[in-house]
Write a structure and sequence with these properties.
elongated; about 290 residues; alpha/beta; Arc Repressor Mutant, subunit A
Length: about 290
Amino acid sequence: MKTGDVAAPTLTERLNATYGELTASERKIVDALRDRPGEIAVMTGKELAARSGVSTATVSRLFQRLGYASYEAARRAARELRASGSIFHLFETGARDSPAPERLVAGHLAEEARAMEASFSMLDPTTVREIAAALAGARRVWCVGFRNSHVLAEYAATLLASVRPDVFVLAHGGRSLAERVAGIEAGDVAIVFGMRRRMAHFAPLLQAIGESGARTALLADRSLRLADPSRRPDWTLICAIETEQPIDSFAGPFAIVRLLSLQTLRQRDTASRETLERVERLHGLLGELE
């Protein structure tokens, strides 16, 4: 069975299924991995053998028995799971000890700052201005994101709706996704968020939006792979979200959304001012805010 097969059992499932059939030495390896099997992504066969108190040959035989071509094949499978952004698999291989109290806030801030700096280092100012101009001049703007990317779509829609009309979040609601996408047309701009782990329909969704005639700006992390170059979005911004912790940092994507919104505001200039003024009058009329 290929380790990359979607239907292939995980290492944990393989360990549990075969435990009763293993030798005493092989069980030592399983016992060493049981709590954190994902650690093999960052552990050599020699290191695992030393931790388990067995030979490297025993390690190799065990993983072949589990259905892998070799221990290295199992490591590659574990690294693929980690790269997918699964919090479970990141937690298995990440540090579990909490930092010292005096380093808790400073260490977290430094990690967020590194992620944001890495995201901005990959930005092309010309591309940012082009996207902002498209957002400013579009007939309608659609903000698209699912799972953990949904909050980015909501944030983008909230900011953009304050500087221009006709901004929508593409959400299922009581309608199918196809019914919602059917409303996207030429003259529109879709800003799509594709942070790991993406829904299975992400690539077909991008294709459908592209075929609608709308222009597409994609914000995604570095794990994104688009198979068909001819169907790529009009613009792509890559963000750094991975850290040493099991939960990704979205500091970079949020900051980029704010940057795009500010540039859109400046592109629209007088029109944005009129929108903001009208909103302020309505706030006063409706008494919504303090």
